[in-house]
């Protein structure tokens, strides 16, 4: 059984909903899952998990949230080598550049990125909710 931690930041609740659905998918596949906001998590505890899923909406000019998630992720980067990492989030504009740039950072850290990450436009609808659950299942099976 995989131990998964889902660490996310959400301003509108959209990324929180994505985090919940991803956690559900991983739980349904038998993983042990802990879900925390970035304010509740510590970089040190990431070492206790097989898989780390980071979530942030696209902000400003297609970046991850800058006040909490960016510093947390930057501090986590040295610990990610060899780890399985998933990334996800919601967006309201743009074409997903923030997720592609984040994926590059994960790979550059020496982590194994699960899939290409998951970007959901605004609030998850039925179709994107299914994709979130499927990504959670993929995370648990990785």
* Coarse morphology: globular
How many helix segments? 4
CA distance, first residue to last residue: 11 Å
Largest sheet: 6 strands, parallel
The gist of it:
The protein has 142 residues and is an alpha/beta fold. It has helices at residues 14-28, 69-76, 97-108, 126-141; strands at residues 3-8, 32-37, 51-55, 84-91, 112-113, 118-121.
Give an account of the 3D structure.
With 142 residues, this protein is of the alpha/beta class. Helix content is 36%, strand content 22%. Strands 1, 2, 3, 4, 5 and 6 form a six-stranded parallel beta sheet that branches. α3 (97-108) links the parallel β4 and β5 (112-113). α1 (14-28) packs across α4 (126-141). The longest helix has 16 residues, at 126-141. The radius of gyration is 13 Å and the shape is globular. 42% of the residues are buried. The model has no long low-confidence stretch (mean pLDDT 96).
Which key terms come to mind for this protein?
single chain, 6-stranded parallel beta sheet, alpha/beta, globular
Topology:
Blueprint: E1 3-8, H1 14-28, E2 32-37, E3 51-55, H2 69-76, E4 84-91, H3 97-108, E5 112-113, E6 118-121, H4 126-141
Parallel strand pairs: 1-2, 1-3, 3-4, 4-5, 4-6
Helix pairs in contact: 1-4
